[in-house]
Amino acid sequence: MPDIPFTQYLRPDGRINPVTIDVPDEVHAKAMQIIAAGYRFECEHLTPGYASLTIFDPEDEVDVAIEVVPNGPEVPEAVNRMVLGFKLEDR
C-alpha cells in the first residue's frame, strides 16, 4: 500500500518528526490531490492514549479537518475517513 506523509508533533515541546501512514490506493490518490492543493497532513499524540489527525491549511493557518481517535488500529481507519470525506471543491 502507498503511504501519506504526515508531520508529527512530539510532546512535550512540539518537535517535528516526519512520518507516513499506509493507506489504500484510492485514499492515497485523493490525499495527493489534497497535498497538491496546498494542504498538509499533521498528527499528534494526545494524552491519555489518543491521536489527533488533521488536514491543515497553511495559508489560513487552520485545521480544516480533524479526527481524534484512540492511538492504535483506529488511526488508519480515521485517516481513510478523513481523506475520503474531505471536499476539495468546497474550499
Based on CA atoms alone, the radius of gyration comes out at 12 Å
Mean pLDDT: 95
Kindly give the count of domains. Answer: 1
What share of residues are in beta strands?
A: 35-45%
* SS element count, helices: 2
From the spread of the alpha carbons, the general shape counts as: globular
- Biggest sheet strand order reads 2-1-3-4-5
Helix fraction by DSSP (H/I, runs of at least 4) = 25-40%
What class do helices, strands and sheet pairing give?
A: alpha+beta
> What string, H for helix and E for strand, traces the elements in order?
EEHEEEH
Give the tags.
5 strands, 44% strand, single chain, alpha+beta
Helices, strands, pairings?
Blueprint: E1 3-10, E2 15-22, H1 25-36, E3 40-46, E4 50-57, E5 62-70, H2 74-85
Parallel strand pairs: 1-3
Antiparallel strand pairs: 1-2, 3-4, 4-5
Can you walk me through this structure?
This protein has helices spanning 25-36, 74-85, and strands at residues 3-10, 15-22, 40-46, 50-57, 62-70. The termini are far apart. With 91 residues, it is α+β, with helices and mostly antiparallel strands. It has one domain.
Can I get a quick summary?
By secondary structure, the chain is an alpha+beta fold. The protein is about 25% helix and about 45% strand. The longest helix has 12 residues, at about 25-35.
